[in-house]
Design brief:
By secondary structure, the chain is mostly helical. The chain has a single domain, classed as Transferase(Phosphotransferase) domain 1 (Transferase(Phosphotransferase), domain 1, Orthogonal Bundle), CATH 1.10.510. It contains four helices and no strands. The radius of gyration is 16 Å and the shape is globular.
């Protein structure tokens, strides 16, 4: 049995949230561009590309789309676009309909 102290559990949850935002960025990038932001058959090379290389940005994205993807794929998790602000982004604003009677619950926000 493995026990994690509260400090480690909080860090794991923070990393999971950061991974969700970044993963969403990768999925949206591939859907909108037609290829993943980083492509290789080697896991080690993929990690290196993600950590050190810049995303290849196509020139045919709208400014709002580019800004959304750039925010989700930001390498620094402190500067990355996160879930609570995602639906307020101009690219998605007024395009995602939520029932008015439903309260939005943000994952891991307590």
């Amino acid at each position: 049995m493995v026990y994690l102290c509260s400090k480690h559990r909080v860090k794991i949850i923070e990393n999971l949230i950061n991974d969700i935002d970044r993963s969403l960025g990768c999925i949206l990038y591939e859907l909108l561009v037609g290829s993943p932001p980083f492509c290789t058959t080697s896991l080690l090379q993929l990690i290196r590309k993600i950590r050190y290389e810049t995303v290849p940005w196509p020139t045919n994205l709208s400014a709002d789309c580019f800004n959304l993807l750039q925010g989700l794929l930001e390498k620094d998790p402190r500067r990355r676009l996160t879930w609570p602000h995602l639906l307020e982004h101009p690219f998605l604003e007024n395009k995602v309909l939520l029932p008015p009677e439903k309260r939005i619950v943000y994952p891991f926000s307590g």
